[in-house]
Design brief:
Layout: H1 17-21, H2 24-27, H3 34-49, E1 54-59, E2 64-70, H4 78-86, H5 91-95, H6 107-112, E3 114-123, E4 126-133, E5 136-144, E6 151-158, H7 160-163, H8 171-184, E7 189-194, E8 199-204, H9 209-214, E9 222-227, E10 233-240, E11 247-254, H10 260-275, H11 290-295, E12 298-306, H12 319-331, H13 334-343, H14 348-355
Parallel strand pairs: 1-7, 11-12
Antiparallel strand pairs: 1-2, 2-6, 3-4, 3-6, 4-5, 7-8, 9-10, 10-12
Length: about 350
């Protein structure tokens, strides 16, 4: 007869124990070195959401990091600091703020997966320090800090018992995530320092998505922003540079579709519908290559943000949202319009006629 299972076998996990016991459910394969960088970025996003204008991210050794957020507006009340960084359901709902385009965060996740985790908050004339060890509260202190500017510091030592003896933060993987954050958190400066080799990098994109496409050769990108009444936002920057394959960066924040591939494909489909001549569905022949020709040299960055209060997800770009801005953009650039017309095997006049207001 098989073993029985009853109420005596039920184990109640408290605090951050669920994350520590089943880390794969929250961060994926802990053997993947990229997970270490994602843990650091969780805390970076938290400080961005509470207003940090400049962040200094320091890698002290393979598993130790420190993040300083200038102008971060976290409360100095000990119980509130504990609530933000030790509640599995806190994220931005606990903090009550969220920067558009920057995905919601779970600061407790980094805490739970650290052997030690410490938060220092300065503001409201006080300085509060709260410490945890392996997800368990280890003490707190409060000091006078009259006249000191608001700042928050997070320091963690990622737990080798979870990630493995040879776990190590990989600089270029962290840099890629910080670069994306700087683009989405328009205007925020992120400085990264690696004490292991002395290398430093700074990420700053005052133009947001437009800066991303500019780095890939688009001098004067098309910018599009569509806002919903409930707070959802679609942002887009695009242009054509050179004659290579299309390059589309895409992000989705909030509870909408989180697939960047879906957003990229939607953008290409919207461009095709707006720029290519109508054709019979499943038509064979030269027209089959038109979409690929249209995308040659395309550089785009697209972001969709659906906040929790939104009644419906923000949709990806469509021809209806794109064409009102795309038409004037191309008509004002005859050389680019002629280049695209040549790529799709059409005359500039015919393409111009389709883009012109009826």
């Amino acid at each position: 007869m098989g073993a029985t299972y009853d109420s005596r076998d039920i184990v109640v996990l408290e605090g951050l124990d669920p994350i520590r016991k089943r880390p794969g459910m929250y961060v994926g394969d802990v053997r993947d070195p990229r997970v270490l960088s994602r843990c650091v970025v969780e805390s970076v996003r938290t400080l961005i959401h509470v207003g940090a204008s400049r962040l200094i991210v320091t890698i002290e050794d393979d598993v130790t990091f420190e993040i300083v957020g200038e102008d971060a507006l976290l409360s100095t009340e000990t119980r509130l600091v504990e609530a933000v960084f030790a509640s599995m359901s806190c994220g931005c709902q606990c903090i009550h703020t969220r920067r558009p385009m920057v995905a919601e965060c779970n600061p407790a996740l980094t805490n739970a997966l650290s052997a030690s985790f410490e938060v220092d908050v300065v503001g409201e004339g006080a300085r509060t320090r709260v410490r945890w060890r392996q997800g368990r509260l280890d003490g707190s202190e409060i000091f006078d800090a009259t006249g000191a500017p608001p700042v928050a510091r997070v320091r963690g030592v990622l737990d080798r018992q979870i990630f493995g003896e040879h776990a190590a933060l990989v600089t270029h993987e962290l840099d890629a995530l910080l670069d994306d954050l700087a683009v989405l958190a328009t205007g925020v400066r992120i400085h990264r320092r690696d004490a292991r080799d002395g290398s430093t990098r700074e990420y700053h994109a005052p133009g947001g998505l437009a800066d991303r496409v500019a780095t890939r050769g688009v001098r004067d990108p098309l910018r599009l922003r569509v806002e919903q009444e409930d707070g959802g936002v679609l942002e887009l920057a695009l242009g054509w540079a050179g004659d290579g394959p299309a390059h589309v960066d895409a992000w989705s924040a909030g509870w909408g579709d989180d697939s960047s591939a879906v957003l990229g494909e939607a953008l290409l489909a919207a461009l095709a519908e707006a720029l290519l001549p109508p054709r019979i569905p499943f038509e064979r022949g030269p027209h089959a290559a038109l979409s690929a020709n249209l995308a040659r040299g395309l550089v785009a960055a697209i972001a969709v943000d659906t906040p929790a209060r939104a009644k419906s997800p923000v949709g990806p770009p469509t021809a209806e949202t794109l064409k009102p801005a795309l038409g004037p953009y191309l008509l004002a650039r005859p050389a680019l319009l002629a280049e695209i017309a040549q790529q799709i095997g059409e005359t500039p006049d015919a393409l111009c006629a389709r883009l012109s207001p009826s």
